[in-house]
Amino acid sequence: MPEYKKNIMVTGAAGYLASWIVNYLLREGHRVHATVRNLKDREKVKHLERMMEIFPDDLLLYEADLLKPDSFDEAMKSCSVVIHTASPYFLEKPKDIEKELIQPALKGTLNVLASVNKTLSVTRVILTSSVVSLYNNASDIGSDVNHTVQEKDVNRNQNVANNPYAYSKTMAESVARDEQKKQSRWELITLHPAAIFGPSLSQRIDATSVGIIFKLLNGTFRSGVPKLWVGVVDVRNVAQAHVKAAILSDVAGRYIIAGESLRLLEISRLINPEKYGIKNKLPKNEVPKWLTWLIAPWIGLQRNYVTHNVGYPIYFNSSRSKAELGLQYYSSVDTFNDHIQQLVTDKLLPVSIIR
């Protein structure tokens, strides 16, 4: 049990990451005000309802919409900490970038912070950002293969069409910092996770990480994968980071949350499909960059992204998260195989993947 119980609001609580945050907060003895877009969507909230059965007095569910002003007022009452995780992410370019990506990220953040400004009990806001708010493309880092992305780095891209997701996360953090500077009651801490993998607490397959695993397992990349470096981190570590950022007193600023940086081929070599009775359609080699660029639209990549990221090593300095948040990172082999085990256990793998 904590020294004293906090009331903590978590937005987007039915999501892949937020579900783990809610779970850890409850197990640490705190009371959670969890917001979801639609309480009537039983498929998306049933795992939260199961948590309510275990923690009937400490988990409260509220309905809130990122694009509706004042939507978070009720859920935020009496909370001292707000954890804002709700923000869309697409592996492929959305059809309507402004409506599906930018507006939820920017207006959603501003609407949450407008409620924070009206709620006098709130003294800290934790914003789930991303490592991509620290750089736009791997090619921006430079030719030094030993360079690592640092918390002080900034994504200076001002063109929404050039990596829309990175733009949305960068601008959301920027407007949040602008709002924080206007007052002195609440402080802002931003967490910047790499690509998140690991087991889910829900039986949903709409998380981006699940889509990537499906593509590795279903033969999409059987003839080879792009030579692409990906910063990876376990969803449980990212959730733990949010909890620590919410309850520890001596934390501030930005934190990169990343276990390690791996090429896609290295990730595929961590997976043991035979262990789970899965057909082995994993890639065995890397394809040339020119071919990756040519087939990009058919494998869920944007050609501009291929041009500026494939073939460029990139690494991340997560030393602050270890020293100040006390994170001990899961090994990547455990992260990916635990994720696949969860998909197998919950019978979520498509028939085409199973033997």
Key phrases:
3-stranded mixed β-sheet, NAD(P)_dehydrat-like, 3Beta_OHSteriod_DH/Estase, alpha/beta, 12 strands, 15% strand, oxidoreductase, oxidoreductase activity, acting on the CH-OH group of donors, NAD or NADP as acceptor, single chain, NAD(P)-bd_dom_sf, 355 residues, globular, Rossmann fold, 7-stranded parallel β-sheet
Can you characterise this structure?
This protein is an alpha/beta fold and about 350 residues long. It has twelve helices and twelve strands. It has a domain at about 5-205 and about 230-260 and about 315-330: 3-Layer(aba) Sandwich (Rossmann fold). The chain is about 35% helix and about 15% strand. The strands form three sheets. The protein has a seven-stranded parallel beta sheet, with helices on both faces. Strands 8-9-11 form a three-stranded mixed beta sheet. A two-stranded parallel sheet has the order 6-12. Helix 1 crosses helix 7 (about 235-245), helix 4 (about 95-120) runs parallel beside helix 5 and helix 9 (about 290-295) packs antiparallel against helix 10 (about 305-310). The longest helix has 22 residues, at about 95-120. It is globular and about 55 Å long. GO terms for molecular function: oxidoreductase activity, acting on the CH-OH group of donors, NAD or NADP as acceptor.
CATH architectural type of the domain at 7-204 and 232-258 and 314-330: 3-Layer(aba) Sandwich
The low-confidence runs, each spanning 5 or more residues with pLDDT under 50, are none
Average pLDDT confidence is 91
Measure the end-to-end span: 45 Å
* Helix run count: 12
Biggest sheet character: 7 strands, parallel
The helix fraction, in percent, is 25-40%
What Rg do the Cα atoms give? 20 Å
The total beta strand count reads 12
What strand line-up does the widest sheet have? 3-2-1-4-5-7-10
Q: Class of the domain at 7-204 and 232-258 and 314-330 in CATH?
A: Alpha Beta
GO molecular function, one term: oxidoreductase activity, acting on the CH-OH group of donors, NAD or NADP as acceptor
GO biological process, one term: steroid biosynthetic process
Domain 3-beta hydroxysteroid dehydrogenase/isomerase: 9-246
Protein name: NAD-dependent epimerase/dehydratase family protein
